[in-house]
Amino acid sequence: MFEHLTPYAGDPILSLVETFNADPRPHKVNLCIGIYFDNDGKMAQPHSVHIAEERVGMGIKNYLPMEGHAGLRAEIPKLLFGTNHPVITENRVSVVQTLGGSGALRLGADFLHTWLSGGKAYVSDPTWDNHRGIFTAAGFEVGDYPYYNPETIGVKFQELCEFAKSQPENTIFLLHPCCHNPTGVDLSREQWDELLDIFVSHKLIPFMDIAYQGFGDDFDQDAYAVRRAADLGLPLLISSSFSKNMSLYGQRTGGLTVVSPSAEEATLVLGQLQLGIRRIYSTPPAQGGLTAYHVLSNETLTAQWKQEVYKMRDRIRAMRQRIYEVLQQKQPEKDFSYFVKQRGMFSYTGLSVVQVHRLRDEFGVYLLDSGRICIAGLNESNVNYVADCLATVFAE
Ligand code: LMR
């Protein structure tokens, strides 16, 4: 009955983690997945989130509403836009609790495909491995927009702007407001201003995926592009996640926020999102949503949580610095400053597939074939070893 099925080749990130887990070498290092590990190599949860989790206890056994926990839904836009932003006070946001950021992406992609069909979707070149798949699964023809420039280790900004200008109305652009995954290379504020002006004049639709808020500069600055797009009155979709900044990975806690031109439209949008949720998984899980709500609705816990995220951010920065210093000292003829300039958890190393495989096979250092390395997997015990291994393969 199922003989004709095509075999699944596996996911470039999640399947690699399985290979890593099965690797018996004690010195192996997991730098392939976007998870924050602490200096002891443990998946640490911010203490504020732990307190919230204890307060929630066993949580509620009843179903949440289709759209998720009402309190959490009220907090998510404050984190994205800042308290009292006009899109909130004018009731122009529709927010639903989702199954992590991925669930928000799929729900949003399904929504757009149903109600704005005809438009094509573009993802950055390169992007997170699952973006293209999610939009393709929702029925979109998916293309790439110019983004990363390996020559400058920056953004092909003029090409990106020209490309945006050449697209028809209602074309969807999946954007990373901060901590670009996989490159760690972000647009500057001036570049966001220029790009989003093009979105206004050419009636393009930004879908912003913000999975790492707090890990770039701070919670407010990381949301600059989101706020700017809202200020400009753009129709806007935002997928957000508490997987990384609250370490609620397995709880699948995120949100989809849609900004509409009017409160009436926002009500219609919410209805369609509820319907979409009901048709796929009915209601979201309660525990993670309740935990995130407890953190965000309590001023003291929120302040503590933000400081804890900034400590995680600073530890990542310190690891970037260490990698940079070792490599620069060993190979002064090359410029490794990109390791410290890139933001968020990831660094695009520029390593070839052959070099990546050598790191994995010979040294037990796991990173993605694209050369993406998760800096948050480094710590005092492994950073020198990894830096030495990188220096060895860079010297090839
Ligand atoms: C990553 O990029 O490694 C994370 O977002 C985890 C995932 O689901 O791929």
TrEMBL record:
The answer to keyword Transferase applying to this record is: yes
- Cofactor(s) the record lists: pyridoxal 5'-phosphate
Keywords linked to the UniProt accession: Aminotransferase, Pyridoxal phosphate, Transferase
Gene Ontology cellular-component annotations: cytosol
State a single Gene Ontology molecular function. Answer: identical protein binding
Protein's GO biological process: L-phenylalanine biosynthetic process from chorismate via phenylpyruvate
The superkingdom listed in its UniProt entry is: Bacteria
Residue stretches making up the Aminotransferase class I/classII large domain: 27-388
Q: What InterPro entries does this protein map onto?
A: Aminotransferase_I/II_large, Asp_trans, PyrdxlP-dep_Trfase, PyrdxlP-dep_Trfase_major, PyrdxlP-dep_Trfase_small
Q: How does it assemble?
A: Homodimer.
NCBIfam families for this protein: PRK09257.1 (NF006719)
Q: Which family does it belong to?
A: Belongs to the class-I pyridoxal-phosphate-dependent aminotransferase family.
Designated name of the protein:
Putative 8-amino-7-oxononanoate synthase
